[in-house]
Specification:
By secondary structure, the chain is an alpha/beta fold. It has 3 domains: about 1-115 and about 155-220, Immunoglobulins (Immunoglobulin-like), CATH 2.60.40; about 240-290, no CATH class; about 290-435, von Willebrand factor, type A domain (Rossmann fold, 3-Layer(aba) Sandwich). It contains 12 helices and 19 strands. Helix 2 runs antiparallel to helix 3, helix 8 runs antiparallel to helix 9 (about 350-355) and helix 10 runs parallel beside helix 11. The longest helix has 22 residues, at about 1-25.
């Protein structure tokens, strides 16, 4: 009850701390601390001369603060983000700073500001910070460290301060920024903060430049050996390969032949008909080609298992990127969905974007079974990526029994699984990369 009462103050406290830390350098914090100590020690001027040190430090602090009002740099700032980043993998991007003032600029710093998303109390109450059990009892009860961890995770990215190279008059420079995505999904950038130091290097003037952008963070992916073979061979598809290139049904052209009763007028080859002075038609045949599917189940309460399940699905998509056929991603969000990649369809990166934003399936597992049952006749093979091993998953495997399957089961407790099909890949948390490397 008490923690719920003080919880709203955590966001305000973190915001105040964040803003205060930007205005003073480490040198400035040392000078301010020294001034406070000297003021306390030198309060009795008849016993010590420390008060003179306090007076000197106070004058330096005042001059430092006043000088910030006189030297705000005139610059323009533009951020250049990559199209994608991957969760857990650091990346570099650039912020262009152009000097529009009348003097060179040096010793500037940049802070990029993603949108800060504090957790709500429900998320705060059900979550546990990694390593929280090692903290003392008071910190565990108060939960402020957990709040900061969740806020950082919700925000989605950590970014180091950028040191701006010296900018000559009317010039522009690119400042490298190092960032590390903490989760998949969309990260919103709101503004860029420019810090300009005073002559003593104690404090910074703070200028904010609004710059709204979004960055797509793709799911973390694991390495899968090149020797891993996707399940399923060539399979008959209505319309053949051409169905992936055009709307409606069409077949692959094979040869010309004489017209027979019942042939469609659309198949007449008019050039040959004119030469031979009798009807000639084009003959077609249907094609067989590979169409596989990744069937992803997201109906799980354990968020860590869910994230790893999505990461494994993304890894398999990356493995199938250079195949010649079609790849279907089948999952259930609010409704059952099939996203197809391949010739004439979406690119594999579109499927990765879908995985980056997918959430937990709040519905019933039957939705997934229904959409797979309606679609399985088109498939050459399928990869099942499952969070755990439930009765619904067993039904799904039985339903797809005639198809070549590769089964990946992500679990927290491997020993609790029963009736696992032979050849299934069981991936316990903490050993996923190792198990996939041997798949």
């Amino acid at each position: 009850m008490i923690r719920e009462f003080i919880f709203p103050g955590f966001a305000r406290l973190s915001r105040i701390s964040r803003n205060a830390s930007r205005r003073s350098s480490e040198r400035g914090q040392l000078v301010t601390t020294s001034a406070v100590i000297s003021a306390a020690v030198g309060i009795d001027t008849s016993l010590t001369m420390v008060y003179q040190l306090f007076a000197l430090l106070l004058c330096i602090i005042i001059v430092s603060r006043l000088s910030l009002r006189l030297q705000k740099p005139k610059v323009s700032i533009r951020r250049r983000l990559p199209k994608y980043a991957t969760a857990g993998e650091p990346f570099e991007y650039f912020i262009n700073v152009a000097n529009e003032g009348t003097q060179p600029e040096r010793d500037l710093r940049l802070i990029d500001n993603p949108k800060v998303l504090p957790p709500d109390f429900e998320q705060f109450d059900r979550s546990r910070e990694p390593g929280e059990e090692t903290r003392n009892a008071y910190d565990r009860w108060l939960g402020f460290h957990r709040f900061i961890w969740l806020q950082r995770l919700n925000t989605g990215v950590t970014i180091k301060q950028g040191m701006v190279p010296e900018i000559s008059l009317k010039a522009a420079v690119d400042t490298p920024m190092e960032a590390t995505p903490l989760r998949r999904g969309i990260v919103n950038f709101q503004s860029i903060t420019l810090l300009c130091p005073d002559p003593f290097g104690l404090n910074y003037s703070v200028s904010n430049f609004p710059d709204f952008e979004q960055l797509m963070i793709l799911p973390r992916r694991y390495a899968i050996p090149k020797s891993f073979e996707l399940p399923g061979g060539r399979h008959f598809q209505p319309g053949g390969v051409n169905s992936t290139w055009s709307i409606g049904e069409s077949d692959e052209f094979v040869s010309l032949r004489d017209y027979r009763d019942g042939d469609s007028m659309r198949k007449i080859h008019w050039a040959s008909t004119a030469k031979r002075d009798k009807p000639v038609v084009k003959e077609f045949q249907d094609e067989f080609f590979v169409r596989q599917a990744i069937i992803l189940d997201t109906a799980v309460d354990d968020m860590e298992v869910l994230e790893e399940t999505i990461s494994v699905a993304a890894s398999l998509l990356l493995q199938s990127e250079n195949t010649d056929g079609l790849m279907d991603l089948i999952y259930v969000a609010d409704v059952a969905k099939i996203v197809t990649a391949g010739r004439g369809h979406a690119q594999p990166t579109h499927q990765l974007e879908v995985l980056a934003t997918i959430g937990r399936n709040e519905g019933t597992p039957e939705k997934l079974l229904d959409v797979v049952a309606a679609h399985q006749r088109l498939l050459s093979g399928a990869m099942l990526v499952l969070p755990g091993w439930t009765d619904e998953h067993k039904r799904l495997v039985r339903m797809l029994g005639k198809l070549p399957l590769a089964i990946f089961i992500i679990t927290r407790e491997e020993e609790n699984l029963t009736e696992v099909p032979a050849g299934a890949n069981v991936l316990p948390l903490g050993k996923i990369a190792e198990r996939l490397a041997g798949a």
